[in-house]
């Protein structure tokens, strides 16, 4: 399987996801500025993987600054945390990890003790995410019947997590159990995570994949009689409102119209205890340049405004269940989420 991130010889090794599927190029990250840029440009992406990248980032920062006096050491680390927090706003996993790192830095006055805690935070974040993916797959696989037609969105697999993935982890597990899943994925305009990454991952494993235009989802649900929709999440509020890749919200509306169950798969690290509902979730607005090129024709000469939100929020009432490593959370979410996480 692909290795989207690892830590070796005081460098973070990242698989550059902007080059997939044409090339598999690994880049060595040895400064926080390079990591910031890699996150911003989506060389590394996916909510759980961003949490892991942030954890390795602070481990790297600690190593780089370890020879400074304690005050300078702490200041440099806190400054790097601020830089990483300003990279992408929506995936809460990144903030959850950086808040833990901040707590360690502020709790001790011995830099070697802080360093030790940051090394163990990085190792633990990666390892726990791998385990959570396996458990999400265990908990979700029974929702998949034999020969199920599954619709998913964006990329939620090996390339988005520390393990086999969330929504895609369930699909992998169903395939390994011989259930023969048949997967439909929207191309995920404008950066094509569905067409480039999900199709690449799943077909490499021998899973049947159909790439569709994002705008064909309602048609495909009706024509192909989709059995189930499963997507991932970037941030889940305490009432179950869920931010995920732009297009998830209208996928959920379409699924409800056709009475197709719509599930979110995510580790509990994706819940935001400080967000009571969708109003507390920030949505990343990305550079309009990503929209300029459509099909064969560049649109750069148009005077029109381009709007490029990277995420949207699916209201809790459209979600049939949230599959986590601790089990499936069912509505009413306001009551049930606090018991699970
Ligand atoms: O902009 P991206 O590629 O980081 O967006 C990723 C998604 O929206 C994923 O669906 C989400 O992070 C869940 S990954 C398990």
How does this structure look, described?
The protein is of the alpha/beta class and 341 residues long. It folds into two domains: 130 residues, Four Helix Bundle (Hemerythrin (Met), subunit A) (Up-down Bundle); 202 residues, Rossmann fold (3-Layer(aba) Sandwich). Helix content is 40%, strand content 16%. It has ten helices and 15 strands. Strands 6-5-4-7-10-14-15 form a seven-stranded mixed beta sheet, sandwiched between helices. Strands 1-2-3 form a three-stranded antiparallel beta sheet. Strands 8-9-13 form a three-stranded antiparallel beta sheet, covered by helices on one side. Strand 14 and strand 15 form a beta hairpin. Helix 2 packs antiparallel against helix 3. The protein is globular and about 65 Å long. The two termini are 30 Å apart. The model has no long low-confidence stretch (mean pLDDT 96). The protein binds 5-S-methyl-1-O-phosphono-5-thio-D-ribulose.
């Amino acid at each position: 399987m692909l290795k989207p991130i690892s830590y070796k010889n005081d460098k973070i090794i990242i698989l550059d996801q902007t080059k997939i599927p044409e090339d598999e190029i690994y880049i060595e990250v040895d400064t926080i500025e390079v990591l910031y840029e890699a996150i911003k440009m989506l060389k590394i992406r996916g909510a759980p993987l961003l949490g892991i990248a942030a954890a390795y980032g602070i481990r790297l920062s600690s190593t780089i600054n370890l020879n400074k006096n304690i005050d300078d050491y702490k200041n440099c680390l806190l400054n790097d945390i601020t830089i990483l927090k300003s990279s992408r706003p929506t995936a809460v996993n990144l903030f959850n990890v950086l808040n833990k790192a901040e707590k360690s830095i502020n709790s001790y006055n011995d830099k070697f003790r802080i360093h030790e805690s940051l090394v163990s935070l990085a190792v633990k974040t990666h390892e726990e995410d791998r385990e959570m993916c396996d458990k999400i797959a265990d908990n979700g696989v029974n929702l998949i019947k034999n020969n199920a037609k599954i619709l998913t969105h964006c990329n939620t697999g090996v390339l988005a997590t520390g393990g086999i993935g969330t929504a895609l982890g369930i699909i992998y597990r169903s395939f390994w159990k011989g259930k023969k899943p048949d997967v439909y994925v929207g191309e995920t305009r404008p950066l094509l995570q569905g067409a480039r990454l999900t199709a690449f991952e799943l077909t490499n494993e021998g899973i049947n994949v159909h790439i569709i235009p994002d705008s064909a989802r309602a048609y495909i649900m009706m024509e192909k009689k989709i059995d189930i929709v499963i997507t991932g999440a970037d941030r889940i509020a305490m009432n179950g409102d869920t931010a995920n890749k732009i297009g998830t919200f209208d996928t959920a509306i379409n699924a409800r119209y056709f009475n197709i169950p719509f599930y979110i798969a995510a580790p509990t690290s994706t819940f935001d205890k400080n967000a009571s509902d969708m109003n507390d979730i920030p949505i990343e607005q990305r550079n309009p340049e990503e929209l300029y090129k459509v099909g064969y024709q560049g649109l750069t000469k148009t005077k029109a405004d381009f709007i490029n939100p990277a995420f949207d929020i699916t209201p809790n009432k459209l979600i049939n269940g949230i599959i986590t490593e601790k089990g499936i959370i069912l509505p009413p979410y306001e009551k049930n989420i606090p018991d699970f996480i």
